[in-house]
Amino acid sequence: MASMEKRLHKELQALTKEPPRGVHVDQESISRNITEWLVHLDGAEGSLYNGEKFQLVFKFSQSYPFDSPQVMFVGNNIPVHPHVYSNGHICLSILTDDWSPALSVTSVCLSIVSMLSSCTEKKRPPDNAIYVKTCSKNPKKTRWYYHDDDV
What we know:
Structural class: alpha+beta
Largest sheet: 4 strands, antiparallel
CATH class: Alpha Beta
Strand content: 5-15%
Distance between the termini: 46 Å
Shape: globular
CATH superfamily: Ubiquitin Conjugating Enzyme
Number of strands: 4
Number of domains: 1
CATH topology: Ubiquitin Conjugating Enzyme
Strand order of the largest sheet: 1-2-3-4
Number of helices: 4
Helix content: 25-40%
């Protein structure tokens, strides 16, 4: 078994045994393909997304955990958020430039829940329309510009 597969099995076991509140792994999707996970995410209580349900897809390369997974929202409910494009791409530095092998599926999910929970206004990124028309299907191929860096 490749080291990537060992790591994924270990993470899956931990996430299944003690999932963070509002995070649920779709076991059926993983049983078909260990390198592609469907994760259900509930909007946190007290946030603008309270009561909403989302789906994330994680796609892992053979280089995981040294290479970040491809992570994006999928399904009928893509959150309206300043860092989430209408096609499900997420502008979050730990998914690209700030990735570390010390991070995991659990820590990525917690970061996304935190990002959603800190939102004060539901709106799309300012460049949503042009981005969605011109981007690659793989969000990891995007050279992200973090609008928050201007503040």
